[in-house]
Amino acid sequence: MITSELPVLQDSTNEPGQAEAVSLGVNELEDTGEVKGKKKRGRPGRPPTANKKPRKTPVDKPQSGAPRGRKPNGVAQQNGEGDAITLFEVVRLGKSAMQSVVDDWIESYKHDRDIALLDLINFFIQCSGCKGTVRIEMFRNMQNAEIIRKMTEEFDEDSGDYPLTMPGPQWKKFRYNFCEFIGVLIRQCQYSIIYDEYMMDTVISLLTGLSDSQVRAFRHTSTLAAMKLMTALVNVALNLSIHQDNTQRQYEAERNKIVGKRANEKLELLLQKRKELQENQDEIENMMNSIFKGIFVHRYRDAIAEIRAICIEEIGVWMKMYSDAFLNDSYLKYVGWTLHDRQGEVRLKCLKALQNLYTNRELFPKLELFTNRFKDRIVSMTLDKEYDVAVEAIRLVTLILQGSEDALSNEDCENVYHLVYSAHRPVAVAAGEFLHRKLFSRHDPQAEEALAKRRGRNSPNGNLIRMLVLFFLESELHEHAAYLVDSLWDSSQELLKDWECMTELLLEEPVQGEEALSDRQESALIELMVCTIRQAAEAHPPVGRGTGKRVLTAKERKTQIDDRNKLTEHFIMALPMLLSKYQADAEKVANLLQIPTFFDLDVYSAGRMEKHLDALLKQIRFVVEKHTETEVLEACSKTYSILCSEEYTIMNRVDIARSQLIDEMVDRFSHSVEDLLQEGEEADDDDIYNVLSTLKRLTAFHNAHDLTRWDLFGNCYRLLKTGIEQGSMPEQIAVQALQCSHYSILWQLVKITEGSPTKDDLVALRRVVKSFLAVCQQCLSNVNTPVKEQAFMLLCDLLMIFSHQLTNGGREALQPLVFNPDAQLQNELLSFVLDHVFIDQDDESQSMEGDEEDEANKIEALHKRRNLLAAFSKLIIYDIVDMPAAADIFKHYMKYYNDYGDIIKETLSKTRQTDKIQCAKTLILSLQQLFNELIQDQGPNLDRTSSHVSGIKELARRFALTFGLDQIKTREAVATLHKDGIEFAFKYQNPKGAEYPPPNLAFLEVLSEFSSKLLRQDKKTVHSYLEKFLTEQMMERREDVWLPLISYRNSLLTGGDEDRLSVTSGGASSKASSVRSKKGRPPLHKKRIDAEESVEGSWLMRNDTIQTPGALQTPQLTSTVLRENPRQAAEHMPDQDSEPGSESDYVHNPQMQMSWLSQQKLEEVNRKDRTGMSYMKARSGGVRQTVRGLMEDDAEPIFEDVMMSSRGQLEDMTEEFEDTMVIDLPPSRNRRERAELRPDFFDSAAMIEDDSGFTMPMF
């Protein structure tokens, strides 16, 4: 039997006892001529007998004529030209044909098989990426395990890559060459060398040992080699089996002859040949069993997925190649078990291996038991999380269906049916192929031939189309006809393009005995038919499938053109008849009116089919006059728009018909409006219906057509004004009038922007827009919610359109049309959002629970509210509404996170990009509003452990996370936020006296959530500013009501100095700390001290008094609060024009980094001379600033606190925005020691600045 050890070369001095210990016997070839003669076969590897002549060792053999320049020790050398001559290099380069490479090796083997085998062993070792080489001494004296252990020690540990895993086309080619080399080697040796009981035993023993190694490279490479070796041996065994069968037939034929004609010599030769073939077959089976049991059985469940995949792929090849031997349950079970593999790559190989088997119908009987055992698993894999695996599983189920209709139950088929609606197109297409095979394949040739002669509804496709409609209707999971058509498009195009049959099913009456289509079936058929037309005309999948429109090939483009011509020619005549039959059904008409959008309209004039155009226009007119549904009217309007395209010659004919229709509608509308306005409150339902129906039609047409010459705005405005004055206008009329007026304004703007407007034109349009905005603003207080919502959306849209951006792109002449909303309008818009968007529906949701219709209504209502919020948020983002208005939006971030979290987060991100400081002020204002609301509800004595306080703190923590990790960019904004927060906390004095805490002191606990976003030196500056508001009594208090102040001071002092400061020590402790740090190291240059003095203290001296500046006054917390316009408030604010304009300003100018902090630099320089003041004065004067300048010697540089707040969780990293997400590591200690407040700490190598200005992480 074959063992896992390499043969040990027997020295001439070995004693017989030593020879018996050799694991593999070595049978030498007496000469090269004996290879083709008789050979000893049977039990390979038997030990040599005592009387057998020992073979010569390689040392005893002559070395002359060694091919390809190899040294006797097996180490390859190079020829004079420097060409690589090792087997590995020859195979890697792939410049020589494998046939010639193998022939060279065989010649070497015939000359000296040990040296040749050593070459082959080193080939496998080097293909594994090992740098070591097996030498002849190792081959002679060491066992297999010892050699592998030695080679393991010589691996290159710097890289985990090896040839089979290296990327690039060169190594892909190497893998192919490697596999080809093994196959050619066995093919060339199949008649002699593989039976010499030496070469194959050595190779199999080596590969078995390597495949059991702990080294992945050895295991992977040897498993691939062994599996390819096994495949080659299976091919040899198959050839031997064929030769045996042929020999047996020849023998039987000869033996059955009569005695006189029988050739006994031929019989003996055939017997000898049969015996020799049988012996060869036994030896091949012995080798295959060794590989299968020694390698495959262990490696098919290897820890590495690639190795498992190799095993499964090759066993599939064996079963297909030699099914008589391998296609049985003993081997199929390995594939079945591996269907449950945790890696998609392995499952995929299993399915492809089975597909190769199920493709052959003759193999189905042998697969029957396997199918019954593993069918459920295969069907379940159609829902695999890996799309590639799911696709192949569906294809395998389709093959099983083709082989046996009874193999799959109805439940199995239904599991595949619904996948035609999958959003992943390959899965859907595979499921469509299954559906086609199951439902639409005809299995009766005679009936098919009889039906093929019929056309229309009686054609072969007639019943199939009915079946498709039934399938579509019975599919309870989905109603997406476009997805169903796309899934079947590749497999059932002939059926789906049979529009003649579809129209006949719709138009013709059923013949006797034929069941007519129901109304529901007709609607479904029309929907499917329109989807097939769209698919044929556009030649790309519907929205939601695929990554976008791909470029069509020439063949696909030609097919598209042919299909479009075909459908145009057919439906030009059929569509008017279909509209005539179904003109009363809104759903069917809306679908049918989509068909002209896919026409080639040149066919009308080229084919002289104007009469069919007139018939179509006539039917469309009937539809417009009969229906008031928005969907139908918009479809008619769109059809007119397409038919009126100037590029087609039919434009004039269609334009005349359209103008006549609109003239009639406008005339009817004018009269009905007059009647309605005259009758006033006495108007009856008919008058209202006449106005509403005509207005709906005109609004739908005004959306796609320029109707300004009919001046619809006048009558609509009259209706709106009357409704506002009298308060009795029906809500639907008001909604339609608002929409129609909006379209009219937009069309007037289009005419002005495309032409050369006069001043009168601009004045006229401005007057119209101003009057309409006033009407919309008045409608915000309407009692009817639909009217209010419509007015709000139109206000937001028009304010966006007529904003300051209207003059961009060289349109400065349109400046008179720019509208800026006043404070009253801004507050009314904000009030509407607060009253109609941020509403609780808990009670509603409980009452509606379980009702699907109500659930759908709730979802629709949520979408409407999201649209309202998004419309208002855009006004904030584009600086149309003042940013402080966003405070009322931001404060709802946590409470309504599930409904509007994404919108609020994006608004916050965009506003920060616009103005970081103003955004920070808005954030703190939102927290102040929530705090004031809490004070109003609970009084000044807040329960700091209550859920309300925790909710405000959690919101502050979320806001702090949005500042990101780049503290340089947000430095000024965070400092401003703290400044405003401190001022708010001390804004009011306690009426009981100075010894009592201020009413808003608890707000400092909320503010402490932002302390981690301050730089170390800024913490000191903020702390200094805080002390301006404190008295000695406040600093010494320890009662619970003062805990917010203690907590906030600790958050500022932590990290502000090397030592943590106690609360009671106050400024004296800070002073002592500065003295210690000064003694700890030599002082830095005076220049740095001056710079830091001016930087740190300047911002807190922007106001000489303790009183709170009026930059962002906290408004009364009602939804209709009036706020100061920032443009007006700017007169009372310190100058904030120092917001840095670019990152380069920070990098190259240290003062620009803190430009807003240094606005009073001159005052700071003057204050440095006041060093003789008392300590209490020095706390806010120049001496303290000088001391702080000295303290900077011991301060951490810019990158101090890059962590989130102490309570932050890992998932909160998702709160960061893209414009601030960047990770900067703190500098090393040596770097900190030589650090000065310069941009050196800003490591630009860790950043990528994209075109949009966002700072993105490198990893």
TrEMBL record:
Function statement: Component of cohesin complex, a complex required for the cohesion of sister chromatids after DNA replication. The cohesin complex apparently forms a large proteinaceous ring within which sister chromatids can be trapped. At anaphase, the complex is cleaved and dissociates from chromatin, allowing sister chromatids to segregate.
Family to which this protein belongs: Belongs to the SCC3 family.
Superkingdom of this protein's organism: Eukaryota
Composition-biased stretches (Basic residues): 1076-1088
Region (Disordered): 1-79, 1057-1096, 1126-1148
Subcellular location as annotated: Nucleus; Chromosome; Chromosome, Centromere
Name of the protein in its database record: Cohesin subunit SA
Major subcellular site: nucleus
Listed Low complexity bias regions: 1062-1075
GO process annotations (BP): cell division; chromosome segregation; sister chromatid cohesion
Keywords: Cell cycle, Cell division, Chromosome, Chromosome partition, Coiled coil, Nucleus
Compositionally skewed regions (Basic and acidic residues) per UniProt: 1126-1135
GO molecular function: chromatin binding
GO CC, one annotated term: nucleus
Pfam families: HEAT_SCC3-SA, SCD, STAG
Coiled coil: 260-290
UniProt cross-references to PANTHER family, sorted A to Z: COHESIN SUBUNIT SA-1 (PTHR11199:SF6), STROMAL ANTIGEN (PTHR11199)
Record domain SCD: where: 296-381
Species of provenance: Paramormyrops kingsleyae
Subunit-structure text: Part of the cohesin complex which is composed of a heterodimer between a SMC1 protein (SMC1A or SMC1B) and SMC3, which are attached via their hinge domain, and RAD21 which link them at their heads, and one STAG protein.
InterPro entries associated with the record: ARM-type_fold, Cohesin_Scc3/SA, HEAT_SCC3-SA, SCD, STAG
